[in-house]
Amino acid sequence: MTREQRLILAIAALASFVSFLDATVVNVALPAIQRELGGGLATQQWIVDAYLITLGALILVAGSVSDVYGRIRVLVVGLIVFGAASVGIAAAPSPEVLIVARAVQGVGGALLVPSSLALITSNFSGALQARAIGIWTGLTTVASIAGPVVGGVFVDLLSWRFAFLINVLPIAVVIVLIARLHHRDERRPDAHIDVIGALLGTVGLAGLVYALIEQPNLGWGSPVIWITGGVGVVASVVFLVHQLRAREPMLPLALFRVRDFAWGNIATVFIYAALSLSGLVLGVYLQQGAGVAATLAGLASLPATFVMIGLSSRVGAVAGRWGSRLFMTAGPIIAGLGVLLYLLIGRDFEFGRDYWLQLLPGVLVFGIGLTLTVSPLTSAVLGAIEPARSGIASAVNNAISRVAGLVVIAMLAAIIGGELDYDGFRRGVVVSAILLAIGGVVSFLGIRDHRPASVDIAAPRETS
Q1: From CA 292, how far away is CA 287, in angstroms rounded?
Q2: Which of 215, 283, 216, 299 shows the shortest CA–CA distance to 429?
Q3: Which of residues 390 and 459 earns the better pLDDT score?
Q4: Where do transmembrane segments lie in this chain (predicted)?
Q5: Rounded to whole angstroms, how far apart are CA atoms 301 and 275?
Q6: Quick one: pLDDT at residue 315?
Q7: Residue of 45, 201, 308, 450 with fewest CB within 10 Å of its CB?
């Protein structure tokens, strides 16, 4: 790599690192937030999902925004919005203010990920591009897993508020690196921002999530639930129809004609829904149910990170020779078995006494399964599409993974039976394991490791 390429990769990786880190920091901070600001399970769901609604709805259109206004400019705006929202979360006097700030933070996060990927795909090519994307994927995955550890330390030693300020330093570093980058920003004068698609996507997700989260409180018979849920369904359907007709769709449905891309994203739905659900129920239950300190709750899953760091590159290399199907089949099923081992946790669990026999085995098996899954899944989805479309293919897969987490967290009350007590924790564990197993079966049935396909994602032109 040239000096400029190394600098671009550092900027792209750190910018995305911020977004992925914060997405998991929140899990370990939820009990402390509840103790200080109040609110029940629904409030905790909204704190997580407010971020995912705006992130999931806008992450695709953000790619077009970066094409119109310039990737570096949009990246800087995203960093500023994300940083300002983080400060707003840290200063929030009530759950309502915190939830609004989380939604704004999701907007910033949506601007960061596509812009950083676009920087990589436009400045790297061939084997060097694959290597750069691999480094980016590895760092963002580590950020997702390490988030609870870092957040737990801040919650215990300082306050949950400081856990949301850990983004400030890396954001400052990225802005300094951008200032040192003598790189002409690239724009596409013919690019089009799908404003209607973004609005429809946001309304659709928000309506569905509101109905799912508030249904346990208001009941299915409530007009509020029926109206918001109905608006969400209608907006989502209109969104899909609009994407079929849009000149430059933010969600190019033509990509799903490619078999491995389509089946890889179906597997993504189940796998990442399970990861979101298991991460939340484990992190929150250890603190609220078992009385474990936030730092220890975060450290509980750290061995899985070490497994990924140690084995990811080797798994990626072997999967490159053997194909992704075997790994995407076995990996989620092994991860699901690891999650099932969480059922060894007893009602009187004490971290120092019981961690080694009741929790560590599951964490290690889960880490092995996740390692076998993540890199091959990314390779299958991106490898199914020609390199010129890898940016939008990755953005679609990223958005689908976030929306999967969004929906499963919205359904949390129904999954755990209304309360995250010991029995609710065990229900969440079983559902997570089932979702992972389904992800493995879907991969076995669908993935064929085909060569990259060329796809025309533009809407068909009308002829007179």
Answers
A1: 5
A2: 283
A3: 390
A4: 47-65, 72-93, 99-120, 132-154, 160-179, 191-213, 219-241, 262-286, 292-313, 325-345, 357-383, 395-416, 428-447
A5: 12
A6: 81
A7: 450
In the numeric block, the tokens 């905790």 are attached to: 44
Cα separation, 101 vs 135, in Å, equals 30
Contact criterion met (CB below 8 Å) for 207 and 228: yes
For 453, the 3-state DSSP assignment is: strand
* Highest mean pLDDT, choosing among 38-52, 70-84, 253-267: 253-267
Q: Are 68 and 4 in contact (CB under 8 A)?
A: no
pLDDT of residue 461: 42
In contact, 187 and 115? CB cutoff 8 Å: no
β-bridge mates for residue 385, sequence order:
453
What's the CA angle centered on 251, arms 384 and 178, to 5 degrees? 85
**Count, residues in the chain:** 464
Res 126 pLDDT > 80? no
Each residue of 391-415: pLDDT tens digit?
677 778 888 988 899 899 989 988 9
Tokens of 318: 């072997």
Q: Which is nearest to 31 in space by CA: 156, 117, 133?
A: 156
Read off the tokens for 253. Answer: 């449905």
Residue-level pLDDT at 309:
75
Question: Helix, strand, coil: what percent of the chain each, to 5?
Answer: 80, 0, 20
